[in-house]
Design brief:
Number of domains: 2
Shape: globular
Distance between the termini: 101 Å
Strand order of the largest sheet: 1-2
Structural class: mainly alpha
Largest sheet: 2 strands, antiparallel
Strand content: under 5%
Number of helices: 24
């Protein structure tokens, strides 16, 4: 059954091709159903392949499906091949499963859109690219999928490109990711120069050839690529602006594709990461710093989607922190659970936006629990899961990360714990401002003179919410820290053998850490409830410093943006206008002047030409006589 693996990327590729050629004729809603069916086919293929892999002994759960040799150049032999193992299979299952639900949701959310079929063209290509990324058996094919999700994210973020802000958001995401891609490419060149191959199996077999400073450089360059895709400091600014795209795009990027790519890449090359403890410390510090900074920013955002966007940056920071501590299984466990509850939260936010006629300002929502009962009921599960309340999935997965971090560094653990407190706080703030308090959507505003009554989403949007609510509740049970119930740990153990786990910790320590996690989550909920349960206007808890994202964008604008703009103006007016154009125009003017002067010698009279010949002949004779005389 593992031989069905090729069907996983094939289904979305076929869906992309069909929609690209026939989508406009098919139109709304059939284009959406075809796109959803394609991803559903990929999910079924993933389930079949998973069943086949589970049936194999743990030591042989890996399989390479080769199609052809793509680049045969001397020592560089790059094959178009798929690599199926527990890690890639785990990624494929939640990518296809969550993407299928987002596609189904999009059928209702995008109804009536002018470019309805084009939207699903992009979505299918997005999922195909992500599957290529995680199934590739070598770094170069991984990079093909890496670039595929990059360009699809650009198209989808700037999908409503008629708005200048949307177009700018797409370009911002594209540029930030290209910076990270430079790191990925340089790391590939460096690894190939030492290992002589880009295939993962060959690289890992010859990892001893990549040592010392080379290993550190390779890991840090790969981490730069991961920072671009997974929105980590210093390249995290693009992700909040990515909210300019339709909400299903936000859910797809945050839950199933794009931002998980960087974490996956680092986990895939974990044998290389283990060669450089110094680089691992850098990864862990950047991860915990990003988690903390993004958490603080999320506490003061007013746009419902931007709160969730910074929440994703923070949660990915936890995953990067786990990677830096060697807890690769914990990172993937959190990634899977995060896919469920963050997908639920984004789709729930989309349901709110859809039901309130595109209202995203938390200060203009409120009291929606009665008019949007399905959205409210399912959103509760996502809120409690991400807040870390037991027994929901976030409690187990985030707790697993923090337990491993505690074994590495109590200081990093303390910062992670404070971040967990802030996470429960800002998510409770979002929950109360959206569903409780006064019905602020009834109040007229300058850009909204009259209110309307919000409405619940159609069933095609509600089904994904219900499914994700169930998954967000129970996903944590796939890896319980109890003997015999840690299936996920056992499943990924062949991939991450030798990683840092919390198995060596005393059971009393594990219980104490778990109780602390739960107490901190409850405390965060309580603080937010006390502050936001009555009033929505609390500026003392929303400092401008945090609303302006720590002035991070302003700093980049001052350091890179304005000097770059000034350099562009100087280049346009001086370099281009005066030097380059001046040189070209000067040559033209010189030719024109000299040709005008030369025209005077072209009179057209034979006598003038005869005189010129005679003078020239006389000069030649005089020259020859002078030569004879002086000799």
């Amino acid at each position: 059954m593992v031989h069905a693996a090729f069907l996983m990327p094939l289904f979305p590729l076929v869906g992309f091709a069909v929609l690209l050629t026939l989508g406009r004729r098919i139109g709304d809603p059939w284009a959406g159903w075809i796109g959803t069916a394609a991803i559903a086919g990929a999910f079924v293929a993933a389930c079949v392949t998973f069943a086949g892999l589970v049936g194999e002994p743990a030591s042989t759960r890996e399989f390479t499906q080769t199609f052809f040799t793509w680049i045969p150049v001397g020592g560089l032999q790059v094959k178009a091949a798929l690599y199926i193992d527990p890690l890639s299979m785990t990624m494929c299952l939640f990518i296809t499963g969550v993407s299928m639900l987002i596609h189904l949701y999009s059928i209702g959310y995008m109804k009536g859109d002018r470019d309805y079929s084009k939207f699903f063209v992009y979505l299918n290509l997005f999922v195909f690219s992500m599957l290529v990324l995680v199934l590739a058996n070598n770094l170069l094919v991984t990079f093909v999928g890496w670039e595929g999700v990059g360009v699809c994210s650009y198209w989808l973020i700037s999908y409503w490109f008629q708005s200048e802000s949307n177009a700018s958001a797409g370009k911002k995401a594209f540029i930030y990711n290209r910076i990270g891609d430079v790191g990925f490419l340089l790391a590939m060149f460096l690894i190939f120069s030492k290992a002589g191959s880009l295939d993962y199996s060959v690289i890992f077999a010859h990892k001893d050839l990549i040592g010392g400073g080379v290993a550190t450089a390779a890991v840090l360059l790969l981490f730069l690529g991961a920072c671009g895709k997974s929105a980590q400091i210093p390249l995290f600014n693009w992700l909040p602006d990515a909210m300019a795209g339709p909400t299903p795009v936000s859910a797809l990027i945050h839950a199933a594709t794009m931002v998980t790519a960087g974490v996956y890449l680092l986990c895939r090359v974990s044998p290389i990461l283990q060669l450089s403890p110094d680089a691992d410390w850098v990864i862990a510090i950047v991860g915990v710093s990003t988690a903390f900074v993004a958490m603080t920013i999320a506490t003061s955002q007013q746009d419902i989607k931007k709160v969730l966007a910074f929440s994703t940056v923070s949660q990915i920071g936890y995953m990067i922190l786990a990677v830096g501590c060697g807890a690769y299984t914990a990172a993937i466990f959190l990634m899977v659970c995060h896919a469920f509850y963050k997908g639920l939260l984004f789709l729930g936010a989309g349901s709110v936006i859809h039901g309130t006629e595109d209202e995203q300002d938390l200060k203009r929502l409120g009291a929606l629990r009665k008019v949007l009962p399905w959205t409210f009921g399912t959103f509760i599960f996502g809120w409690l899961a991400i807040s870390g309340i037991p027994p929901f999935s976030g409690f187990w997965s985030k707790g697993d990360v923090l337990d491993n971090v505690f074994a590495k560094s109590p200081v990093l653990w303390a910062i992670g714990l404070v971040t967990a407190l802030g996470t429960a706080y800002y998510m409770t703030r979002l929950f109360y401002l959206t569903f409780y308090g006064k019905a602020r959507w009834r109040e007229p505003a300058p850009d909204r003179p009259a209110h309307h009554t919000p409405h619940e989403s159609p069933w095609v949007m509600r089904i994904p919410l219900i499914v994700l609510a169930v998954l967000a509740s129970v996903a944590g049970f796939i890896d319980l820290p109890v003997g015999g119930l840690d299936f996920f740990n056992t499943w990924l153990d062949p991939v991450f053998a030798g990683s840092l786990y919390n198995d060596h910790e005393h059971s009393l320590t594990v219980w104490a850490l778990s109780v602390t996690d739960a107490a901190v989550a409850v405390l965060g909920l309580f603080i937010a409830w006390r502050i936001w349960r009555v009033r929505a206007d609390r500026p003392e808890f929303e400092p401008r410093f945090l609303q302006r994202v720590w002035y991070w964008d302003d700093a980049y604008d001052a350091i890179f943006g304005r000097p770059g703009e000034a350099l562009a103006r100087f280049s346009a007016t001086v370099i281009e206008g005066r030097i380059i154009d001046g040189a070209v125009n000067g040559v033209g003017s010189l030719v024109r002047v000299t040709s005008t002067k030369a025209r005077r010698f072209q009179t057209g009279y034979v006598r003038n030409y005869a005189l010129a010949i005679a003078l020239g002949l006389a000069l030649i004779i005089a020259f020859m006589v002078s030569r004879v005389w002086w000799s």
